[in-house]
Amino acid sequence: xxxxxxxxxxxxxxxxxxxxxxxxxxxxxxxxxxxxxxxxxxxxxxxxxxxxxxxxxxxxxxxxxxxxxxxxxxxxxxxxxxxxxxxxxxxxxxxxxxxxxxxxxxxxxxxxxxxxxxxxxxxxxxxxxxxxxxxxxxxxxxxxxxxxxxxxxxxxxxxxxxxxxxxxxxxxxxxxxxxxxxxxxxxxxxxxxxxxxxxxxxxxxxxxxxxxxxxxxxxxxxxxxxxxxxxxxxxxxxxxxxxxxxxxxxxxxxxxxxxxxxxxxxxxxxxxxxxxxxxxxxxxxxxxxxxxxxxxxxxxxxxxxxxxxxxxxxxxxxxxxxxxxxxxxxxxxxxxxxxxxxxxxxxxxxxxxxxxxxxxxxxxxxxxxxxxxxxxxxxxxxxxxxxxxxxxxxxxxxxxxxxxxxxxxxxxxxxxxxxxxxxxxxxxxxxxxxxxxxxxxxxxxxxxxxxxxxxxxxxxxxxxxxxxxxxxxxxxxxxxxxxxxxxxxxxxxxxxxxxxxxxxxxxxxxxxxxxxxxxxxxxxxxxxxxxxxxxxxxxxxx
Amino acid sequence: xxxxxxxxxxxxxxxxxxxxxxxxxxxxxxxxxxxxxxxxxxxxxxxxxxxxxxxxxxxxxxxxxxxxxxxxxxxxxxxxxxxxxxxxxxxxxxxxxxxxxxxxxxxxxxxxxxxxxxxxxxxxxxxxxxxxxxxxxxxxxxxxxxxxxxxxxxxxxxxxxxxxxxxxxxxxxxxxxxxxxxxxxxxxxxxxxxxxxxxxxxxxxxxxxxxxxxxxxxxxxxxxxxxxxxxxxxxxxxxxxxxxxxxxxxxxxxxxxxxxxxxxxxxxxxxxxxxxxxxxxxxxxxxxxxxxxxxxxxxxxxxxxxxxxxxxxxxxxxxxxxxxxxx
Lengths: 542, 327
Fold this sequence. Notes:
- The structure holds 2 protein chains of 2 kinds.
- By secondary structure, chain A is α/β, with parallel strands linked by helices.
- Chain A is 48% helix and 8% strand.
- In chain A, strands 1, 2, 3, 4, 5, 6, 7, 8 and 9 form a 9-stranded mixed β-sheet that branches.
- In chain A, helix 1 packs across helix 4, helix 3 (73-96) runs antiparallel to helix 4 (101-124) and helix 12 packs across helix 13.
- The relative contact order of chain A is 0.15.
- Chain B is built from 5 helices and 17 strands.
- Chain B is flat and about 90 Å long.
- Residues 21-27, 48-55, 73-96, 106-117, 123-142 and 295-327 of chain B have low confidence and may be disordered.
- Chains A and B meet through helix 8, helix 9, helix 12, helix 15 and helix 18 of A and strand 10, strand 11, helix 4 and helix 5 of B.
């Protein structure tokens, strides 16, 4: 019997960046990079662990935009072409680096890695990674949880609770369609919580969600076990608070494991380093240099001086870091056991993309960590939140505090000088969507299609990614364009529906372009949504 | 052949430009110009399709705008802070328009009403030219992206929580309300009054407009439509009123917001008797937890073995930039 439990949560999300209108689209590359560097390697780790009989538990949220992109035939086709280009580039690199053994072996590493990715993607999962993740859920190793439809930052949409309800309902519906079951847990985008959101989760049969440390720690009343056990909201939905220490140990780019000098450097990429004539076919057609994914250097030092990457050293370091992580969790559990009258739970949530994309060796780290936990010790055991709740169904009832895992812990990241202007429009559009759903509860044919598309455009405009990008200042124009585009599409649909003059050609164009949630039902915006015949019943316990 | 393609290209370009500049509706277009603080002439066109709506575009020579241009009538507000083309509400076509310039490097003009900004009169000549309507667009290109409206003709104010100490609010005052004010308090009321946000603390009470725990006023820019408000207290409930203070001191509320409650910024004092055992164990646990600096550097605890020590044990050179080796 272990003394304590560890829940590792990976939050997998990307905004919906499908751009059929262009053959090549810079932001679409975010998705391809994530597939090659994070999602396929994570599946590979799980395949290996299962094959070698290592019992483990992992919890993952796969957001609806990401799952929609996994499912999308156009993107599947494009990703395969993308991988073929990478393989071709790696072949050329093998040639070019023939006389430089320290780089040649790295070219070989990427050549193998891309080949393996293509095999897993095309052969093993038939082009759709949903199958991969679903397989591990069905095996009982992975608990996949639902998330909001488009990663809307719910505390700032809550002025119209119907908008939050629709984000949650559409997210759950997407989950049911993809994973053939009802979700038990829910990832609140950015851990954004405000009291009342739990009541909506409860309406849809959700049993738990996560908050940042202070969401639970600052709850009223004071939670007896701090963040080392879940609490129940007054609605009966459980909240699990993030363990700050284990998060920081991995997360922080400055102090965490990923900054180790032996690990691969993220920024040095042949897309920037090599001659334009040579690299031209593999970068943006307008000769904008981009990350190709072939990176040959290790972090080396805190300076710009970089030495070639040595995979063996990095692998050793990943094993050491996994051992250190486990050791500190053991010590943490041993200390907590002396204070608590039940087995403590340590909840460690991370952005999935940290593992592989930002921290190249991250998937290796997880592989080692799960092995060490399984073979080397008995102090703690990995567990899913639903398993923990089954073990400990009685928990304290408190009200968590409004919080997020963004910088400073509240709403400021998504509500500051660069992005505060969006809320006037997002709120207005949500009010108008409720108005439309109320006025046309039983629409059919063209009007129904226009209403469905209006709901899609509204959801897409609500992605927290746009506000976040505006704040971080990296692809601001794109984020502003997407916000405006979806809002303007929505406004035009609103006017056309109200004035009964829907432009069928334009509607069809939008349906093809912004095709997320093919099965959406706009009636979720109806204030009395339960009684207007939603086409897919939602598992409500409330 | 080459010349021919050039000519063809020029023709296509000309056609595109022609299509581009043709206005879409019957319009009263009014040209205006002003001088910005850099002495650059900026030009624009007020496009008053209906009597109380106007669209304006701004052109500044030399490409990118260096300022936020707000072109305000005595009622309306035009701003290009998000774009170069937006609609404004004007009471009627007017020739009394002013332009405000706020340097774009000002990070958040709504936070400080005294931001570096300057006003300049804009000469507007009402020409009332009527331009024939453009034929219905039949293109399959679908590039409809114009700009978001500045407002929606609503009369409302919305408050949002930013963190335990700050709120954010945005609002819109309807032209009907302003007409009503003018009828009751004279035509110059909007110009002469002080513009305020009145912030009420309504924690634990049913607010009736006069029974707040306390309130304070923030003087704001009359053309502003959003503001970050420092309230300074976690766990309190607030609502915000947009109002005017007349020259005689009378306060006129225009519109009142929803209620919002600031989140907690510390561990609660309230202890649960059913889950009590506020024992030495719990105290120890909380002493530990309260050390956690949220969003700050990695915490250090008694039981954490530093990675540096671990690595030393495994015989690795310590190259890792961890906090431990800075002890």
